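new request in #modeling-help
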Amino acid sequence: EDKVVQSPLSLVVHEGDTVTLNCSYEVTNFRSLLWYKQEKKAPTFLFMLTSSGIEKKSGRLSSILDKKELFSILNITATQTGDSAVYLCAVVPSWAGNNRKLIWGLGTSLAVNP
Amino acid sequence: DAGVTQSPTHLIKTRGQQVTLRCSPKSGHDTVSWYQQALGQGPQFIFQYYEEEERQRGNFPDRFSGHQFPNYSSELNVNALLLGDSALYLCASSWDTYSYEQYFGPGTRLTVT
């Protein structure tokens, strides 16, 4: 059965810390991996990763994919209280055709204390 | 440019009732997906609409149905509500059927008592 596992499930850090969130997957015919940030309600798209070893970067956030070891990490440097959210990882299997059946992890709940 | 909008934001229904949730996609998007997210869980795919047709469906019973209108907006209908239907219902849109970058609406919080 296809699955996506995120770790840790929750994390509490202080402002300025650097955090690394993990997403491992076991999915038949992997196509892409997506990261989302969910605050209160709507998940916000962060990154889409398709190729191994190519880092995606947006400000203090960065992410990389390892298709050999079947995982991705999301790094957040110099964390701020506004980074507090649930970070969701989702995998797109190639049989999905498009984004119809993403396989979602449970998320990592990050709390950044001042 | 308006993003994805959903209505209502909150809803309380009793068991056995029926509910309709609404979604307007982001401007320029023609594909709408619906998700159910229980507390502490990742979103669960319900179904997706494109060109006014249901293109694919997740593991949800027939009590869950939907519709897409010519302006690309969409409705999710749930009949014979159960307590277990209480969840956050998210709508996501994308600009074509091959895009994996979805934009989510704020969601509708449904409580079934």
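bot summary: The longest strand of chain A covers residues 30-38.
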